Amino acid sequence: MRLLAVVTGASTGIGYELAKLCAQNGFDLVVAADEPEIHDAADTFRALGAHVEAVQADLATLDGVDTLYATIQAQGRPVDALFANAGRGLGKGFLDQNFIKAKRVIDTNVTGTVYLIHRVGRDMRALNSGRILITGSIAGFIPGSYQAVYNASKAFLDNFAYALRNELEGTGVTVSCLMPGPTDTDFFRRAELLDTEVGTAKKDDPAKVARDGFDALMKGEADVVSGWKNKLQATLANIMPAGMLADQHRGMAAPGTAHKH
């Protein structure tokens, strides 16, 4: 009997690579994203031998999460692994952002993610079995000048993952947190960061980041920072003053910094 995995944000990037790994490692899938490309992605996962249900839903809304959860329930079997990966970014100074877009970052990264984990996590706890991987970020360690809402949302997720893991000690449910650095995905275009240093710099391979996350989930590890440069940055973030970190981030994410390359 194949296991069941749920992957959000699975149409592109890290989520796509996570779902592919699941399909290659004996999982059937329920995959979700807020764009029609999720159906093309599902065909790729089916070709790898998995039974796949694809859900196009807006996971920034409670209704969208409920739609996904109803599809999960319709499978008639427990979720063995939840990859809470859907995320959204937004560049530029906070006061210059469109607030509706800024709110959408919070609703996607925080509200939708914790609501899905609340629903699926309760089912896992009732069965004393399950694995959850939350895609946080090393951005959560750094005050994100010119990505203020995004970095704060990832700080929330990093923190939340450790707390939930602790609460679930003694059950058969594990929570792991994947903390990538800048990764070569569509994120930077969508977040309007292509005119910045971080938007144009060399980035990590999403397949490698996904493999690190998948392995951490399967081993039940607390966290994994993907990439040695990011490990170094995470270590420095613990000892550098917040003001200095914010200034450093400004140099990477302020509009107009792309010309440094």
TrEMBL record:
GO terms for molecular function: oxidoreductase activity. The keyword Acyltransferase does not apply. InterPro entries: KR_dom, NAD(P)-bd_dom_sf, Sc_DH/Rdtase_CS, SDR_fam. GO terms for cellular component: membrane. Residues 3-185 form the Ketoreductase domain. The keyword Oxidoreductase applies. Keywords: Oxidoreductase. Belongs to the short-chain dehydrogenases/reductases (SDR) family. This is Oxidoreductase. The lineage of its organism: Bacteria, Pseudomonadati, Pseudomonadota, Alphaproteobacteria, Rhodospirillales.
